[in-house]
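Contributing: when you submit paired examples, paste them exactly as shown. First protein:
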Amino acid sequence: MPGVAEGGPATTRLAVTFRLLLLLRGMLLAMAVVLRGSAGPGRGLWAAIALLGLETALALAAWRPVLRLVRRLPPLCCLDALLVFAVLVQGGVFGPFFLFTVMTAALAGVLYAWGPVLLVCVAQIALCFAAMGTASPAERHDPGLLIALPAWIRTSPDRAERDARDILSALRIAAREARGLIADLREEAYGLPLPAAVGHVAAGWSETAAVPVEVAAEGSPGDDIPVAVRYEIVSVLKEALTNVERHARAGRVEIRLVRSADGLELSVRDDGAGFVPPDGGRLDLLAREGHYGVVGMAERARRAGGRLCLRSAPGHGTTVTITVPRASWPAGDAAEPAGTP
């Protein structure tokens, strides 16, 4: 968006929306693959799906440089429409793959002014009509979405149950993150320096949850902390406190933020019920037990260039620690001036 300063609040909101749309597109593509799987997709369809899925995954993993590049080059959205066209030609416009195609136009709508948006939409409409023209008469009357799921369950009930359980876990994690991204659009803390942001989030949560919180911040204020790193750390803090409120039954929470020459460390410790962490630090296994927030925090730590550590035991509370070494801070991601609203 022209006129938006890099690192400002408007850019942060744009980044959140961009990631949310990519997340929704990935969810829709995954569901389409499941529903279409029993129909025996050929190699061409699998290749097109793999390419589009890889593009979406890479854009989510490296969203900062991707967002900057796509904003400068609107024709890249037209190239994305070509990838969608390849999937529609192989999988059919009238089947389950059509639904996720709207995300290309949605992304263009939030990234560009009217001129580039019109270009992308016209290109996508033309490609959809072209793909429609390649469909056979039988495909045009195929109720794809209506029959795929029952057929999948009937032909392989054991696999269907297993896959459905995994998909449900993935959708819950994705939906949780989507709700968080939407809430982040109006969160005041993301515009504050990190120590102030931590204090702001802690004070608000303590008042709402009626649980005392002690906050300790050590080191320099950290005005040079990149926006992306600060965003992920504050998000981990919010998720950790949400988990305390939902599961810990804690009477007290301690938050400690340490800034040193080597990087950042934030720890959230509660004196609540605790639980048994999975063996080998396999935090992804917690999703099967309903601990989706921990999985999301670990992913946020990775996106910030750090790692998440979880220590807990029944009756001895839980400590969540995110460590982000300075060496892994994203290059070229400027911090906002202290006190930016």
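Second protein:
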Amino acid sequence: MEEILNKAIKSVQQSEVSFSKYITANDTGATGAHQAGFHVHKNSWSLFFNTPGEKGSNKDKFITIRWQDTFETQSRFIYYGQGTRNEYRLTRFGKGFPFLTDENIGDLLVLTKKDEENYEGFILSSDEDIDDFLAAINISSTDVNGIIPKQFQENAENKLLRCFDLFLRALKIDFPPTVELALTARNCYIGSYGLTEKIIKANPDVELLNWIDTEFQLFKFIENNRYTERIKNPFQTVQELIDIANTILNRRKSRAGKSLEHHLSEMFNIHQLKYSSQAVTEGNKKPDFLFPEADAYHNLHFSDDKLIMLASKTTCKDRWRQILNEADRIKTKHLFTLQQGISSNQLKEMYDHNVCLVVPKPYLKSFPEVFRDKIMTLDSFIEFTKSKQL
């Protein structure tokens, strides 16, 4: 029954704790045991209890189990620890329970915990269904009869690579534009790690770095695909080698130069900030970001105090001077950078020229302590900009 199989797989994937076992003659009472009911291996106590049973006393727990997504039983999980007994059993299924007969011996029992009192149970009977279940959950037949290990879940890193691969397979050109590369990297990362907008808004500094890192991984993934086979073969001329090398190098530079700007734009969109990117100011200059927008900047009646300019540069030890005349109306120029380890002398010169650094919060510790209070994080810059747009 494919429908039951799929429900069982999905239930395991969405549950904190899951269990599987082959139903035995001992479970059904066919061996003449004094009590029918599913025997549960000692290593699986965490499916029901917070602590294992202790020899010398019994303990139990009453739960609701929904079977095959069609009917429920009010059942009892019990540890027998008194006397000579030392075992766990799941009992009390009511009259007419269909899965404790001789015909069920050899079937696969799957139990999943939904919360402290509610569980789901599935019985898989056919060889094909059992094989498909084990394959989907990534366990072998020898792993049955215990808690299903968590490795069955596709981890985030594997999801990310699968997302990269799907993108590459659909890519009809040699390399995507930088904006598409950045967008795809973000979508793959957010989807693979299950991030919500709330999480991203709460951690803009960390998530921006994750986006940038993911884009770099995606870029390398495509680059390796496009050039691995080519570089295995000898080049016919030195010029051919130089041309290929220059193509690779120039593409890398182009991507790096735009990556930061693309991801900052999306972060500002998520935070619903008003801005213009690459808007023209005096002398045909084009600052990376103007807040609240270009029209406000060119409106002489708009307060200078509410105008903000942000430049974005991956490194800025020398290039920070390039932004000084990008927006004459704005005295303090904000500069977002991924640069780390700038000296006190260089920082003093920047701040003497009214350049305020903005860096990812994890990078703050790389700057001289005396300047850390002056340097903004992305989070504090966003809050500062929001205050100007109220």
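If you have annotations for the second protein, write them as plain sentences, like these:
The mean pLDDT is 88.
The chain has three domains: 2-152, 156-260, 276-388.
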